[in-house]
Design brief:
heterodimer; A: alpha+beta; Immunoglobulin-like; 2 helices; elongated; B: mainly alpha; about 65% helix; globular
């Protein structure tokens, strides 16, 4: 502890070698901050193994027209009614289900069951949209040309909304869709036989993937 | 040679006439942009405040586009160009490398900015700041952005050229000061950023005239290489300004050059990966890509910010203690010049950036937590705490020193100037926190009408949302008042201000009246005292950063807890 020591400000050009050992308080803080950063990093892979909410899904490219056709086929297959001019669709447990965003609506309206897993495929017919499930507050980006397949398990019954939360033009604010979740053992609504559907589904064919 | 320079009577630095004029020109244009962006901000605010709902839909989205582009690109970058000239030519006592090219670049930036403004205001580019393909603006919009970016890129290269000139002409000895080092960091990130800008705006321009295809997902990835990285220029520039204002206002010291400079290098290495923050719930990328990139390769850029968050206040504390403010934990802070608007702006910038912007940013940028954040009001709540309460406020603080040091004028309306940073910071703090809170209810961002008039299904938000949006509006109006005060003060000072005079103290910040010591030499006995302990001790700062870390940990894990309660998704 002898000899003078100089300190300088950040506008002074340091002379000589500035690569000098840090003092203890500074080293301690760097070590603590580094440890915290490692915890922050570890949490994400950990949640993939232990947690129930991950945005990975089944992802792939699609053609907007083809995705629209697939959605229409899905609607024809499992349509049980109509809600505000939109088809109401009740898919069987475990099914691949479809919702398409377009200027400015979400189609179709889905009727799902609590505690049952579905693979929800989302895409867009035209430009970017935002899938925001209200009031769950789960949000996903919907990009044209990409199929976002998310395995979902509703954990509560009720009427849910799908708000578009990516700007998609002048009608953006009116783009609201709907998801209904009923109890697991609630009676199923009868399928409507649509004359435009190629073949009405046999009960044994339901529950499968595409 | 001598008429090319003037000598600064405060700092003794030689100031190149072209550097002087370029700083002035860029600062003036930046202020004009702040005014345009600020007027747009009021329009956006009064529309999102559902009780007022001022603008029709088409003008809301138009004004929102104007607000984003004008603030995040034009205001910030013109100001940063001024900082680059200051940190190179002024701080290193040297000439600007190529003055003619510098003026040409400035002209290019102005032309580009005007083109973009015209397109936006005339309704030819209602595509918002992000202009996600295939949403389409008229071709001159993209062209204007390209011209502006080319101009900015040239200024960055002139900055590097000026550093070479200073080195070759030996206008300084030793290594460049830390502030210049920080500005170099910002400049390197700017090159990376503007490279992404070219890589996306040139194809998009070609797409807009029908010559090329652009994939919407690729657009989002590359565009955010520009959109997010440009905010990292702001972070690096802001931290450099913190160090600069610490030195000018209270004679802060650099605790350890190695630590602070290494932290800046971490920014350069990792911070551009943050494009991923915007793509965490996108269909185009897998989990490995998302986790690795959103964490800047294991949070090393966050580590850098946490280091600066310690070394900046600790440097202030050690400097103050060396001047004799050694009592207790916080005498150094109590006896600081709180009436100096630059000092107040710096401290408020550090606090709001760190506690609100930083903590929310890292939490929201977590892959899974982002499910509860993406495109809700939580997102703009976060970035108004970083880029507005952090960067813009730090730049405002710097202006109070630029007016006397560069423009050679006294700051007009001095009484108003002394309270301006407080009004602006408190307003923005209320604004961003209530916005973030409203976002936790799922309130969307970039949305004209959350009463969803005309939608097939009703959406009933909790009454708490109305309350939060009302509080947000109060905060926003307060911040707009603070921003308006800043514009009135700076414009009046620059164009109608009174020149500096000996003996007149009103309108001159204390650090300009008497520059605090920039070097301290302490003998062996002085280095360790009973009151202070060893000179490098910063016990007050240790308490402050501990409070910060606890707040960070609590907020982070509360969000995981909330996430665990929603539907299973995967």
């Amino acid at each position: 502890m002898s000899g003078p020591e100089t300190l300088h400000s950040a506008i002074v050009a340091p002379q000589g070698v500035w690569w000098k050992p840090a003092h203890r308080a500074e080293k301690t803080w760097v070590a603590i901050a580094f440890a915290w950063c490692m915890i922050l990093f570890a949490m994400m892979p950990l949640w993939h193994f232990k947690g129930g909410q991950n945005p990975s899904g089944i992802r792939g490219r699609t053609d907007p027209g083809a995705f629209m056709a697939r959605t229409q086929e899905f609607i024809n297959q499992y349509r049980v009614g109509e809600d505000h001019g939109l088809p109401l669709v009740e898919p069987p447990a475990g099914a691949d289900i479809y919702m398409i965003g377009m200027m400015w609506q979400w189609m179709p309206v889905l009727r799902l069951r609590e505690g049952v897993q579905y693979t929800l495929h989302l895409s867009s017919l035209d430009i970017n949209h935002g899938f925001s499930l209200y009031p769950v507050n789960a949000n996903f980006q919907i990009v044209p040309g990409y199929d976002y397949g998310l395995r979902i398990v509703p954990n509560a019954t009720g009427d849910f909304r799908v708000i578009c939360n990516e700007f998609c033009g002048i009608g953006h604010h009116s783009m609201v869709g709907k998801v209904v979740v009923v109890e697991r053992d609630a009676p199923a609504l009868p399928y409507l036989r649509d004359s435009t559907a190629a073949a009405p589904p046999a009960d044994s064919a339901r529950g499968g993937a595409r | 040679m001598s008429e090319l320079f003037r000598t600064c009577p405060t700092t003794g630095l030689k100031v190149h006439r072209d550097a002087d004029a370029l700083i002035k020109a860029n600062a003036v244009v930046a202020t004009v942009m702040l005014l345009i962006g600020g007027i747009a901000a009021i329009g956006v605010l009064l529309t999102r405040w559902q009780a007022v709902h001022l603008l029709p839909a088409v003008w809301f989205y138009r004004i929102l586009t104007v607000h984003g582009m004008t603030m995040l690109v034009f205001f910030i970058l013109f100001f940063e160009m001024a900082i680059l000239y200051f940190a190179s030519a002024v701080m290193l006592n040297c000439r600007v490398a190529t003055p003619k090219l510098a003026w040409g670049s400035f002209a290019l930036m102005v032309v580009g900015a005007v083109m973009v403004e015209v397109e936006m205001w005339t309704g030819k580019a209602d595509v918002l700041f992000t202009s996600y393909v295939p949403l389409r603006a008229e071709p001159p919009f993209y062209l204007g952005v390209i011209l502006f970016a080319v101009g900015a890129l040239l200024v960055v290269f002139i900055f590097f050229g000026t550093l070479v000139v200073a080195k070759r002409e030996r206008t300084y000895t030793g290594s460049v000061p830390l502030v210049t080092y920080g500005a170099i960091t910002a400049a390197i990130i700017a090159v990376i950023t503007l490279g992404h800008g070219a890589a996306i705006y040139i194809p998009t321009f070609l797409w807009s005239i029908g010559k090329m295809q652009v994939d919407p997902q690729v657009y989002r990835m590359v565009w955010w290489g520009l959109g997010h990285s440009s905010q990292q220029i702001n972070v690096a520039a802001m931290v450099a300004v913190w160090y600069l204002l610490g030195a000018l206002t209270i004679g802060s010291v650099v605790l350890n050059e190695k630590i602070s400079r290494t932290a800046f290098v971490l920014y350069v290495l990792f911070i551009s990966m943050a494009s991923a923050h915007h793509l965490l719930v996108d269909p185009g990328m897998g989990a490995e890509w998302k986790v690795w990139n959103t964490s800047y390769a294991m949070y090393l850029a966050v580590l850098a910010s946490m280091i600066h968050g310690f070394t900046v206040p600790a440097g202030m504390e050690v400097g103050q203690r060396a001047k004799g403010y050694t009592k207790g934990l916080f005498e150094w802070l109590r006896k600081s010049p709180w009436g100096d608007p630059a000092f107040a702006a710096m401290v408020l910038s550090i606090v709001v950036f760190g506690f609100v912007g930083g903590i929310t940013g890292v939490t929201f940028g977590t892959e899974q937590i982002n499910i509860m954040v993406h495109n809700t009001l939580r997102s703009p709540g976060h970035f108004h705490a970083t880029v507005v309460s952090g960067t813009a406020l730090a730049f405002m603080g710097l202006t109070y020193y630029v007016i006397p040091l560069i423009f050679r004028k006294r700051v007009a309306f001095w009484g108003m100037a002394r309270v301006q940073p407080y009004i602006f910071a408190i307003g923005m703090l209320i604004f961003s926190m209530s916005m973030t809170f409203a976002g936790t209810f799922g309130v969307p961002r970039r949305h004209w009408d959350i009463s969803f008039a005309g939608a097939p299904f009703d959406v009933a938000f909790s009454p708490a949302v109305d309350l939060m949006l009302g509080i947000m509006a109060i905060g926003g109006i307060l911040a707009a008042v603070g921003g308006g005060m800043y514009i009135i003060i700076t414009v009046t000072s620059v164009f109608f201000g009174k020149p500096l005079e000996a003996g007149v103290t009103a309108g001159v910040p204390q650090g300009v009246l008497k520059l605090p010591p920039q070097t301290y030499t302490l003998t062996g006995e002085e280095r360790v005292t009973a009151e202070r302990g060893p000179i490098h001790h910063a016990p007050g700062t240790l308490v402050l950063v501990s409070v910060f870390l606890v707040a960070f940990i609590v907020y982070y894990f509360v969000n995981w807890k909330l996430l665990s309660q929603i539907w299973r998704i995967g």
